Amino acid sequence: MTAFCLIHGSGQGPEGWKLLVHELEQRGHSVLTPAFHLDRTDEGAAWHADTIVEALKSSGHEPADVVCVAHSASGMYLPLVAERWLPRRMVFLAALIPRPGISIIDQHRADPSMFNPAWVGQNPIDDEVALEFVFHDCPPIRLEWALSTRIYFYAKRAIEEPCPLTTWPTVPATYIVCAEDRTITPAWQRKASREWLGVEPVELPSGHCPHVSQPEVLADALDRISK
Question: Across the strands, what pairs with 93?
């Protein structure tokens, strides 16, 4: 059995993991879904990472039993969490990958292919934006619920400051590419996985939120990764 720590992104809160939590528990795993402090946008990436570390420390799980999964923007905190707590594995799910000493904004300036140009500047709190870019492949029956799970967490300082990592953590990493993603481009996800993590990505035929659109498929992939 694995304990999965599911780390939410900037546009959807912990409730968004609900379907995936059910699927993982059906497969015999336990799940943590910690929450960031959404009002602390003045704090840096290390401070937000420590919020997750504190949740892990208080969970009662041993680091070797835990796989941390970061979705979307929370990828910028994942290696900071791993540096502090040394889980069994890091999983980047359609997620940003920070580079030591470089801000996310400067990463994007240097490589605009990171984001779909049509997505840049959009606000997913707008229903039409969310349906077009985030939940476009979700079954219609789930859309009302999916929209209700949205949050707005623009961690301004964490995005603008240079990543505080000095060395990459010695924790194995996996990248899950979402092939139909309309936010972080699938091409960038594949390239970052290979060039920065040095691993061949796992690929799902989904949009940005497979935990909403295809939770069974994602749970199967995470189950395989955890073994």
Answer: 71, 176
